[in-house]
Specification:
Blueprint (H helix, E strand, L loop, with lengths): L10 H8 L8 E8 L5 E8 L5 E11 L4 E8 L4 E8 L6 E10 L4 E12 L2 E8 L5 E10 L2 E10 L4 E12 L3 E8 L4 E9 L4 E10 L7 E11 L2 E8 L3 E11 L2 E10 L9 E9 L1
Length: about 280
């Protein structure tokens, strides 16, 4: 089994702390469906707390036996996105992507080539932005017996200079995982921990320190409780006193509803709190 990508070394704790908290937007709607010819459609809509709305419609065709995937989407900001993926076709363990974005109103065009190469103890990725710079973002992870070591760097071809560097170490087993990362040219440090206590309870925490900012350390603590096979609840709190709660339930086959709230516990009498909902239909 290959190790995770560099961005996923602390995935378990990051997902527990960041995913399935629905207060960030006033409302989210997602509709997923699959046509008889195998094309998957995904329609998303979001309403922000400031009153603005955004959305997208996406179609994806997957030819799994031949390792081919074609994805096209159109957003409410009038951006057309296309992505072609080839998995294990050029070489064993290599996934290649070619992605473009086009804005008809301004004629702006972007193109990217992404490569991912997986082997039993090695996972490397390269992202090339052909129109901006061009730039190259490269990361690699070595892993064995649960231990992980990864590095990341960005290179601007036009400037002939390294623009970003990062490194991470971690340890992952099915019951728990830990990770320490240094990002933003080794100026931002974070330590994350995740523990699957049992089949119903998960807990995690993350501490972050910006060496170029204040001397304070940011802290987030989160937990998840699976109430039954169709519902779960989550809670988290950070060092600034922001507490968040979320509840997710599968009402019936293909219908999922989530509700979230964020409370500023230091300003309970002010209108700084947020409430959001998420509704998903799939069929």
């Amino acid at each position: 089994m290959s190790p995770p990508a560099f961005a996923d070394i602390a995935k378990a704790s990051n997902d527990l702390i960041n995913r399935d908290f629905y207060h960030a937007a006033a409302g989210n709607l997602e509709v997923k469906s699959k046509a008889p010819n195998g094309i998957n459609f995904n329609v998303k809509g979001k309403s922000s707390h400031e009153g603005s709305t955004s959305g997208s419609i996406e179609g994806k065709y997957v030819d799994a036996p031949n390792g081919f995937t074609l994805t096209q989407s159109w957003t409410t900001t009038n951006v057309l996105n296309t992505k072609v993926e080839l998995d294990n076709q050029i070489a064993n363990g290599l996934k290649a992507e070619f992605a473009t974005d086009f804005v008809p109103s301004s004629k702006d065009f972007g193109a990217k080539i992404n490569l991912a190469f997986k082997q039993p103890y090695f996972h490397a990725r390269a992202f090339f932005d052909l129109m901006k710079g061009p730039t190259a973002n490269i990361d690699a992870v070595l892993g064995r017996d649960g231990f992980l070591v990864g590095v990341e760097t960005s290179y601007d071809v036009q400037k002939a200079s390294i623009t970003r560097s990062a490194a991470a170490v971690g340890y992952t087993v099915p019951q728990y995982s830990t990770a320490i990362t240094a990002t933003n040219n080794f100026s931002v440090f974070s330590a994350a921990y995740y523990h699957k206590v049992n089949s119903e309870v998960e807990a995690g925490a993350k501490a972050t320190w910006d060496s170029k900012g204040s001397n304070n350390v940011g802290l987030e603590v989160a937990s998840k409780y699976r109430i039954d096979p169709t519902s779960f609840a989550k809670a988290k709190v950070n060092d600034r006193g922001i507490a968040s709660l979320a509840y997710n339930v599968l009402l019936r086959s293909g219908v999922t509803v989530g509700v979230g709230v964020s409370l500023d516990t230091q300003k309970l009498n002010e209108s700084t709190h947020k409430v959001g909902t998420h509704v998903e239909f799939s069929g």
